[in-house]
Design brief:
The chain is an alpha/beta fold. It is 40% helix and 21% strand. The strands form 3 sheets. An 8-stranded antiparallel β-sheet has the order 8-18-17-16-9-10-11-15, with helices on one face. A 7-stranded mixed β-sheet has the order 3-2-1-4-5-6-7, sandwiched between helices. Helix 7 packs across helix 16 and helix 12 packs across helix 13. The two termini are 29 Å apart.
């Protein structure tokens, strides 16, 4: 089987589409990359992917003249994926495929491209996209993530020991799209079971083993429940940015990681106040081996991922009064300041200053049957690792155990998680390779 895929300069589009093709379980002997000109980047990673599949990589530079694309011969036994690339070239290749005797055409359709497009591979939950085979018949494709175990990474022993938190989200989503709709987590002496429905991820149940830091476990579960007013929060923040305002997050935003993915996409409009740094830094640096210290350190890591530098502070002034004073100062400099918090009492106090530009994130109480934030599972896994020093994920008759590795002083990058156990996990290493290239 051969795969023809047009080149796209977007890593998320090109490598993501290639990743989903591989996750269908098809055995590709050759990957044919078509392009207008010699690609300036991504060839190296595509070659790595091809080697892992045992496939040959061929490059067809066809220029900008549509007639040269029309002259491309479609080989026997070929799959054409027209998701990446320009519409004109995709249309020409599709025409060629339609008249070929053994060509199948595919397209990855994302329901809400603004929300789910241009994200890392495996980010999308099962309800957010459909993978269509357009020809010879219109069919909805199913993924077969179990086939990824056949992929071979030559240096997998190294890669399988460290993975990005986003990779764990990817493996959960790929297995859910392959039909495994439940998974469980064990950490801090607690266990939680989750279920994917057609339109959401549900916290099915949670319980205690009678030992461990169950309070930390419940806090992590609570921090990942879907906000009751999610649409209102996103609408207010988007309106704030569109009107030239800035988003000013409270400390709890960084500790819990709620809507952090959205904040990363708007990082140019995010301002972190000194009182927030003052609440995070001391315990993060001095007590990082305690649960509270690790939690504060994760808050610092998230904050530095948005604002690459930590401000110089002569005194660590913190507390609600300092936050309100800082907001007043920002309001003198800006016409619009939007304060983001999950603290209802502080939100009320701030409302007298900001006159309606406070944004309160309302999280529901921790109960079985509540919706979980599927789009930011990686943030949940990271919270688990920091507060519990690790966790065990069970899904599709497989179990992965992850632990938090050595914590450095400070860093601007989200840390890796270490895979424990003797099992060689080439599929996890393979996913991690693609995920890292699309972050």
């Amino acid at each position: 089987m051969k795969l023809i895929i047009p080149y796209s300069p977007s890593r998320q589009v090109l490598l993501g589409t290639l990743g989903y093709e591989i996750a269908t379980g098809e055995k590709f002997e050759e990957i044919i990359l078509t392009s207008e000109q010699e690609p300036e980047e991504m060839l190296e990673i595509i070659e790595k992917i091809s080697r892992a599949l045992g496939a040959k990589l061929s490059l067809r530079v066809l220029g900008r003249d549509p007639r040269s694309w029309a002259r491309l011969e479609i080989p026997e036994d070929t799959i054409l994926d027209i998701t990446p690339g320009r519409k004109i070239y995709a249309s020409i290749l599709l025409q060629k495929c339609l008249v070929s005797r053994s060509c199948r055409a595919r397209y990855l359709y994302i329901e809400e491209e603004k929300k789910y497009g241009y994200k890392f591979f495996g980010y999308m939950p099962k309800w957010s996209f459909k993978f269509f085979e357009l020809h010879p018949e219109l069919n909805l494709l199913k993924l077969d993530a179990s086939k990824l175990k056949e992929v071979h990474i030559s240096d997998s022993q190294e890669h399988s020991q460290k993975v990005a938190p986003e990779t764990i989200q990817a493996i959960v989503n790929l297995y859910s799209q392959s039909g495994a709709n439940e998974f469980s987590i064990e950490a801090c002496g607690g266990r939680a079971e989750f279920e994917f429905t057609e339109e959401s991820l549900i916290l099915k149940s949670y319980s205690s083993f009678g030992s461990g830091d169950l309070e930390a476990f419940e806090e992590v579960l609570s921090s990942s429940l879907e906000l009751e007013n999610k649409e209102e929060v996103y609408s207010k923040l988007s309106k704030c940015v569109s009107e030239g305002g800035i988003i000013v997050p409270d400390t709890n935003v960084f500790i819990h990681g709620r809507i952090f993915d959205y904040l990363k996409s708007q990082y140019k409009y995010v301002e972190i106040m000194k009182p927030v740094w003052a609440e995070l830094l001391p315990q993060a640096l001095e007590e990082k081996e305690t649960s509270l210290g690790r939690k504060k350190l994760l808050g610092v890591i998230r904050a530095t991922a948005l604002n690459k530098t930590i401000p110089t502070m002569d005194r660590m002034l913190k507390g609600d009064v300092e936050i309100i004073n800082s907001l007043k100062k920002l309001l003198d400099e800006r016409k619009k300041v939007c304060f983001l918090t999950s603290d209802a009492r502080l939100s009320l106090a701030v409302s007298n200053v900001l006159r309606g530009d406070e944004v309160l994130m309302r999280a529901p109480s921790l109960e079985e049957g509540r919706k979980f934030c599927a789009e930011e599972l990686y943030s949940f896994f990271l919270n688990l690792a920091f507060q519990c020093k690790g966790f065990k994920l069970s899904m599709a008759e497989r179990t992965f155990s992850f632990e938090l590795g050595r914590i450095g002083e400070l860093g601007t990058g989200i840390p890796n998680l270490k895979l424990k156990g003797p099992e060689r996990a080439d599929d996890l290493a393979f996913l991690d390779m693609i995920v890292r290239e699309t972050l």
